[in-house]
Amino acid sequence: SYVLTQPPSVSVAPGKTARITCGGNNIGSKSVHWYQQKPGQAPVLVIYYDSDRPSGIPERFSGSNSGNTATLTISGVDAGDEADYYCQVWDNSSDHVVFGGGTKLTVL
Amino acid sequence: QVQLQESGPGLVKPSETLSLTCSVSGGSLSGYFWSWIRQPPGKGLEWIGYIYYSGSTNYNPSLKSRVTISVDTSRNQFSLKLTSVTAADTAVYYCARYGANRKWFFDLWGRGTLVTVSS
Q1: For B47-105, what is each residue's pLDDT tens digit?
Q2: Touching check for A45 and chain B: CB below 8 Å?
Q3: Do B45 and A99 touch (CB under 8 A)?
Q4: Residues B48, B37: contact at Cβ < 8 Å?
């Protein structure tokens, strides 16, 4: 089955740029979606199809996907961005949904 | 706007069956896929499976032998049954909409419900 690998944690100072990676075999050939989950809340979609933003998501959130790594980039990070972030793909070879293990973003 | 709400027992005994229902308000089940996702305490998200409004299903192979997802379009609800539960099935269970406009991500989520497996 397809595996998505995320770093357990990423730390960034306020105002700086956070980059959260999602690794997978030839993930660049798949469409990657990203979710933000704050404590006690349901996940919220922040990026879909690699780099598109749902309405209401700030432009500070962006995404890219190439080769074996997809990246969620959050620029001008503030305390409100502190959360867990999950990547997700649909694995066409198995027709199953796959989530990454999640990354906890800490704002220093 | 469309809202999802999970309901069901918060406590299930080991070896018994976990049963949850997701009620969809503000919109129809028709034309969409409806999914269950769970999250053990302090851990990540795990996809359980989904059902198309017409009834076709797709399950996570790691749970397939114990899972049944069904749909009741007359009540605008879909349901999850997980048999032979153990403590490892303790988790927050979310229902979510999947595949809106054939876009393969989860665009709407319920608030989640905690199910604890314990005697």
Answers
A1: 999 999 999 999 999 999 999 999 999 999 999 999 999 999 999 999 999 988 888 99
A2: yes
A3: yes
A4: yes
